[in-house]
Design brief:
Blueprint: E1 13-16, H1 18-21, H2 32-37, H3 39-45, E2 49-52, H4 80-92, E3 96-101, H5 111-118, E4 131-132, E5 153-156, E6 161-164, H6 179-194, E7 199-202, H7 220-236, E8 241-244, H8 250-254, E9 265-267, H9 271-281, H10 285-292, E10 302-306, E11 313-314, H11 320-330, E12 337-338, E13 341-342, H12 346-349, H13 354-364, E14 370-374, H14 432-437, H15 442-454, H16 457-461, E15 463-466, E16 468-469, E17 474-481, E18 484-491, E19 497-502, E20 510-514, E21 520-523, E22 527-532, E23 537-541, H17 548-557
Parallel strand pairs: 1-2, 1-14, 2-3, 3-7, 7-8, 8-9, 9-10, 10-14
Antiparallel strand pairs: 4-6, 5-6, 11-13, 12-13, 15-17, 16-19, 17-18, 18-23, 19-22, 20-21, 20-23
Helix pairs in contact: 9-10, 9-11, 13-15
The structure holds 1-deoxynojirimycin.
Length: 560
């Protein structure tokens, strides 16, 4: 696939785990052949990139983010040839493939850890990991998995020492002060890059180094290493992407772009919960606040924006008060709360209300950045808060109303996790086949919003500027790129809103047309006046004659 620079700005990313998508050998666990068999479905959704979660040998105590061998494929999912086929078949459909570089830590089952324990103190092999005899070291560093781990240190009987881990105690952190560790990371990257992947998600990247007296996060040493990794990537594998997972406040997050010499993309973690806050409070304030606080980023970089993913909806980047509000309003069931977040999918967070699910997606697909869609959310899949850890949002993809939702032919009790079977979200109702047959389904609408987005480079590449609505429940902004100007107007509230919007374009006169419904609104003297239904949103633009066919199509389908 041609490696055009900046391709990720026009990307729409679909996140998938091989395990969860489709099982073809009847063992109850998804596999590469299954994922390959569903590539047409993924392409037809309109996305153009897939992010495949870790598929390496692993005890799977952290769903594969606990890697026991970086250079192989978990045999349960297939063989390396299957990955090669996946990449080839994806590319043949113009889909790029991003995989994972989980380099902060390994599994305790990785041979490096066994070797480290046996190696003499002070040797390079011992120092592949971070050891101490004094667990008071690095005191005050926050614990990320606070529901599971009392400390970032765990005691190892064999060495009589403590080892450092920012996540589960079975995930010892690698020691980036050791040049041999760094050399291994370069080799791992070379190996997968040579396989033809289009980029890497850098898991848990802020935590690579430890220094006394600091938070051990976002350290200058970590940034220096990333610059090294990036310059190596650019030299050896030009065009490949780094997507950082740095769950930080905007200023610290933006630092992972460096001066365009660290990561190409980074998730906008602080924006995500504020989309939910704004909706529940019927107040655009939280979104305005965080976007105003977001620094300009280098022109060659891009935010990755998302509504949900495989983890809990994290509330680390909000105030205590907002976290409490989110918990009370989106997770009244204590069981749904985990660590500092909520383990639910989009549709259950939205009480299965299609208007709100669409509104959240309309924000996702029009805010500044590259959108990510979490598998299953495009059909409104439910979750299961009674499963362990974050498993409730990682259940099998629902393809049809048959055995195991069409995910697997295995005995239902042999599935890696049960399919969703509660009354409201039962897989017999919510599945791809049913969604295909219903012209008003979320799935059809998702395909439509994605296809509309793809016609305007402004969404991925354009400037972002707020327009001023006279009511706090109405959020409005411009996305502009060259001749494209799109005005997004969103009613965050559940009541009808009459609103006047100052477009911040003095004297602007035009007929603006909604890209979804074809509804027309006149802008006069730099203002529009309109009425918005509960949770209604508009993507307004000056009509382009070449889009007439699309408008017709829309009117015929009436999928609003
Ligand atoms: C971030 C991943 O998203 C999460 O699923 C995982 O548990 C942690 N990194 C630790 O690897």
């Amino acid at each position: 696939m041609e490696r055009t620079s900046g391709w990720f700005k026009d990307a729409i990313i679909y996140q998938v785990h091989v395990k969860t998508y489709r099982d073809t050998n009847g063992d109850g666990i998804g596999d590469f052949s299954g994922l390959i068999s569903k590539l047409d479905y993924i392409r037809d959704l309109g996305v153009n990139t897939i992010w495949v979660m870790p598929f390496y040998p692993s005890p799977l105590r952290d769903d594969g983010y606990d890697i026991a061998d970086y250079m192989r494929i978990n045999p349960t999912f297939g063989k390396v040839e299957d990955l090669q086929t996946l990449i080839r078949e994806a590319h043949a459909r113009d889909l790029r493939v991003i995989t994972e570089l989980v380099i902060n830590h390994t599994s305790d089952q990785h041979p490096w850890f066994a070797r480290a324990k046996k190696a003499p103190a002070g040797s390079s092999h011992r120092d592949f990991y971070v050891w101490t005899d004094n667990p008071e070291q690095y005191q005050g560093v926050r614990i990320i998995f606070r529901d599971f781990e009392p400390s970032n240190w765990s005691f190892d009987e064999e060495t009589g020492l403590y080892y450092w881990h920012r996540f589960f105690n079975h995930q010892p952190d690698l020691n980036f002060d050791n040049p041999e560790v760094q050399a291994e990371i370069f080799a791992i990257m070379d190996y997968w890059a040579s396989m033809g992947v289009d980029g890497f998600r850098l898991d848990a990247i802020p935590y690579l180094y430890e220094r006394e007296g600091t938070s051990c996060e976002n350290l200058p040493e970590t940034h220096a290493f990333l610059k090294k990794l990036r310059s190596y990537l650019d030299e050896k594998h030009p065009g490949l992407l780094f997507l950082a997972e740095a769950n930080m406040w905007p200023e610290d997050s933006a630092a992972y772009f460096g001066e365009g010499d660290e990561c190409h993309m980074n998730y906008h973690f602080p924006l995500m919960p504020r989309l939910y806050l704004a909706l529940k409070k019927a107040d655009r304030g939280p979104i305005e606040y965080i976007l105003n606080r977001t620094p300009q980023i280098p022109a060659t970089c891009q935010w990755a924006i998302f509504l949900r993913c495989h983890d809990e909806l994290t509330l680390e980047m909000v105030t205590d008060e907002d976290r409490q509000f989110m918990w009370e309003n989106y997770s009244p069931e204590p069981r749904a709360r985990i660590n500092l977040g909520i383990r639910k999918r989009l549709s259950t967070l939205m009480d299965n209300d299609l208007r709100r699910i669409k509104l959240m997606n309309a924000l996702l697909f029009s805010m500044p950045g590259t959108p990510l869609v979490y598998y299953g959310d495009e059909i409104g899949m439910g979750d299961n808060i009674w499963l362990n850890d974050r498993d409730g949002v990682r259940t099998p993809m629902q393809w049809n109303a048959g055995l195991n939702a069409g995910f697997s032919e295995a005995d239902p009790s042999a599935l890696y996790l049960p399919v969703i079977a509660d009354e409201e979200f039962h897989f017999t109702k919510i599945n791809v086949e049913a969604a295909e047959e219903d012209p008003y389904s979320l799935l059809h609408w998702m395909r439509r919003i994605i296809s509309i987005r793809k016609q305007y480079a402004a969404f991925g590449r354009g400037d972002f500027n707020f327009a001023e609505a006279d009511h706090p429940s109405v959020l409005s902004y411009w996305r502009s790129y060259g001749v494209e100007n799109i005005l997004v107007v969103v009613n965050l509230s559940q009541v009808l809103q009459s609103t006047a919007i100052d477009l911040n374009k003095p004297g602007f006169q035009a007929v603006l047309e909604d890209l979804f419904s074809g509804r027309r609104i006149h802008a006069e003297n730099g203002q529009i006046k309109t009425e918005l239904h509960p949770f209604e949103f508009l993507w307004l633009t000056e009509p382009r004659p070449e889009l007439a066919v699309l408008v017709e199509d829309k009117l015929v389908l009436g999928l609003d």
